[in-house]
Structure formats: structure tokens, C-alpha cells
Write a structure and sequence with these properties.
Shape of chain A: globular
Helix content of chain B: under 10%
Number of strands of chain A: 11
Oligomer: heterodimer
Largest sheet of chain B: 7 strands, mixed
Distance between the termini of chain A: 37 Å
Order of helices and strands of chain A: EEEEEEEEEEE
Shape of chain B: globular
Number of strands of chain B: 11
Strand content of chain A: over 45%
């Protein structure tokens, strides 16, 4: 079983639609959670951190469910510019006292069409 | 926000040559940097964790003698691909986490596209 799993998609949605992605992780000791966005042939860019209380940034809402070990990303009112790959990132220590190592999901592809 | 640079952005080399890629944190210090490789249409694969002042930690299956990592200062890590072969052609990306922030947010360099002929 992979440590961080995402549905690769693609999710093909019209402009204005609401779309949600989930990501599951296997390490119950995971510490921090993030969503990154990656455009084709570019580096990933931080979209938002994910907190247990949930957080919202404009049209984007992220949720963390530690009990079920998943995080989600909701995008409302999709724009053409939202088309990208969305990467789920989970960090955990490799060993006690060690650095937090980020583990990436394979990404979920979103295509927003007119 | 935190800025990470990489140099070069693109390199084309002949098989058997060595290529050095630099990763710099421009406005923060990082005791730890990470090196990734991404093949087309695949996810980022962590290659190694670069630790300032000590040896890098390599992921399983990554040859430490082929991918030499040096983290000589709190703002610079280098990855040298030794005796590069066409199968090493990939997108290499580094990331760094600002130290003493209490957060694990990773800031990525723009990546280096390596093509080995």
C-alpha cells in the first residue's frame, strides 16, 4: 500500500463547477498536511496547509480527518486557470528526533473546460 | 514568501559526463533540503534528504555514489549526477523548509531539466 494515495483523475469539469479531491495516508504519526498545485513542466507551489479544524482560502477549502487518515480539497466556482495537478503532501519523521520527511501523492489532474 | 532557486534550469549533456545542480534558499536558512526526481506524467519521487554539515540520507534504490549530495552551508545544497546516462534524463527539483519556523512547509526550486544524450 502506498503511503499517500490520490485518485489520479483526470477530473474534467465545466467552469463554475464544484470539485472535491481526497487523499489518504497510511502513517498515523504524520504531522503536517498540505495541498500543492503543479502546472505542467513546473515546480509544485504551495496551495494551502491543512489543519484539523479545516481551513478556507477564497474558493478553496481543505479538511483533515485524522481518525480516517484522509485530507480533502474542495474547489468552488472552478476557473479555467484552476486546471493543474493537485498534489497531496504529508510529512512525518523517518525516526524519532529526525527531520520531517515530506511524502507526495501522485497527484490528481483537474481539467476545467469552458 | 520563501524563495528557492536552482541552477541551471536546463542542461543537455553527453552520456558519461557529470552534471552539478545547485539549490539555494535565497531569503532563509535551511538545515534540511530535499532532492526529488520527476519523470513525465509521474509523481515526485524523493531521492534524498540533504543535511547541512552531515551526510545525506538516500531513499531506497537511489545510488549514493551516482547522485552525490553536498550541503555545505545553510543556504546551499548541490546534487551531482555522476557519469550521467540517458535514463537519468528527468526533472530534478529541490525543496527546503525554513528552519525554526515550527512548520514543515516545503518551498520548491523551479527545477532543472536534465537531458542526457
Amino acid at each position: 500500500r502506498k503511503e499517500v494515495e490520490q485518485d489520479p483523475g483526470p477530473f474534467n469539469v465545466p467552469e463554475g463547477a464544484t470539485v472535491a479531491f481526497n487523499c489518504t495516508y497510511s502513517n498515523s504519526a504524520s504531522q503536517s498536511f498540505f495541498w500543492y498545485r503543479q502546472d505542467c513542466r513546473k515546480e509544485p507551489k504551495l496551495l494551502m496547509s491543512v489543519y484539523s479544524s479545516g481551513n478556507e482560502d477564497g474558493r478553496f477549502t481543505a479538511q483533515l480527518n485524522r481518525a480516517s487518515q484522509y485530507i480533502s480539497l474542495l474547489i468552488r466556482d472552478s476557473k479555467l486557470s484552476d486546471s493543474a495537478t493537485y498534489l497531496c503532501v504529508v510529512t512525518a519523521r523517518a525516526f524519532s528526533g529526525g527531520s520531517y520527511i515530506p511524502t507526495f501523492g501522485r497527484g490528481t489532474s483537474l481539467i476545467v473546460h469552458p | 514568501g520563501a524563495v528557492v532557486s536552482q541552477h541551471p534550469s536546463r542542461v543537455i549533456c553527453k552520456s558519461g559526463t557529470s552534471v552539478k545542480i545547485e539549490c539555494r534558499s535565497l531569503d532563509f536558512q535551511a538545515t534540511t533540503m530535499f532532492w526529488y526526481r520527476q519523470f513525465p506524467k509521474q509523481s515526485l519521487m524523493l531521492m534524498a534528504t540533504s543535511n547541512e554539515g552531515s551526510k545525506a540520507t538516500y531513499e531506497q534504490g537511489v545510488e549514493k555514489d551516482k547522485f552525490l549530495i553536498n550541503h555545505a552551508s545553510l543556504t546551499l545544497s548541490t546534487l551531482t549526477v555522476t557519469s550521467a546516462h540517458p535514463e537519468d534524463s528527468s526533472f530534478y527539483i529541490c525543496s527546503a523548509n525554513p528552519r525554526d519556523t515550527g512548520r514543515d512547509t516545503q518551498y520548491f526550486g523551479p527545477g532543472t531539466r536534465l537531458t542526457v544524450l
